[in-house]
Amino acid sequence: MPSNANAQTPAITVAEFEQLLQTHHPFSALLGAEVLEIGVGTATLLLPDDAAHKRLGGIVAGPMLMGLADLALYAAIVGATGNAEAVTASLSINFLRKTPPGGVLAHARVLKTGRTCAGDVTLVPAVGGEPVAQVISTWGLPTPRKA
């Protein structure tokens, strides 16, 4: 798919992205994240409050937050570029504070597109408040295979 970075409409809808996850990334269902919005280079996802996501002390486990951030930035990248074959090249997370009770929102944005993409994700409590984590990630954008 061609780059869509300058267009006003995302290269993929929420429904199309959810279908993409079901058919090509079924492991993403383990998070149970809800895709709330996809824009051109932006996405917002919700990790619901679920006891299966928590570690000792009742806080959301780091791997759950990392998975949420990775999935959110994937949505933002596909929304910007239309390239569903994008792959994570690096992901760095800073845990800022423990998660309060409730779900966690991931606000992703693409900062650069090209052969590689870079972006960041801010993870905040769904009930509001200060961020619980901040993520920086780079992605490779392989040339899509021809059908």
Describe the structure.
The protein has 147 residues and is α+β, with helices and mostly antiparallel strands. It is built from two helices and six strands; from the N terminus they run αββαββββ. It has a six-stranded antiparallel β-sheet with strand order 1-2-4-5-6-3. The chain is globular and about 50 Å long. The protein starts with 13 loop residues before the first helix and ends in a 7-residue tail after the last strand.
Explain the layout of strands and helices.
Layout: H1 14-24, E1 34-38, E2 42-47, H2 62-81, E3 87-95, E4 104-112, E5 116-125, E6 133-140
Antiparallel strand pairs: 1-2, 2-4, 3-6, 4-5, 5-6
Provide keyphrases for this structure.
alpha+beta; six-stranded antiparallel sheet; single chain; disordered N terminus; Thiol Ester Dehydrase, Chain A; globular; 147 residues
Strand content: 25-35%
Number of domains: 1
Average pLDDT, to the nearest integer? 93
Major sheet: arrangement of strands: 1-2-4-5-6-3
Name the assembly state.
single chain
Q: Please give the share of residues in helix.
A: 10-25%
CATH evolutionary superfamily: Hotdog Thioesterase
Largest sheet: 6 strands, antiparallel
Compute the number of strand runs: 6
- Give the ordered list of helices and strands: HEEHEEEE
